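Input/output pair, single chain:
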Amino acid sequence: MNDYAAPNLDSLAALLERQALRHGIACVDAAGLDAFVAKGGDVLILLTEDPARSPETWDVAVILPEILKTCGRRLRAAALMPADSREVAARYGITRYPAQLFLRDGGYVGVLEGMLDWDAWGGAVARKLALPVGRAPSIGIPVRGPASDSACH
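Output:
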């Protein structure tokens, strides 16, 4: 019999708490995110999903400290549990988990969605950090005119 239990929400919460203690990755909720971001500078926010639905969430959460080491001390990091992640994702048009949201001084920089090959990660993070602050994409909402039933893109 296999004693290994697949990661679930409880084990994800425990992992994020360990990452906070060992590596200073803040565990925040959607309500506390703005205060965390308001401290300024470059920020990486890990948006998670239930590892039973998105196993990559566990992988990214485990290697997040190594990702942060690739950029020295330039990034402050936080992680959100799935319910809070979905709330924050809606603000930024994020539809795939796990996602790493990059912000600078409260403004949107970019996002990396899903799991990347390790060799690609450092370059992807460096490219995000080199970008200027811009407008966050949003999730499209169909627009209907008064005389039309067709949706606009």
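Confidence is low (pLDDT under 50) at residues 148-153. The first helix runs from residue 9 to 23.
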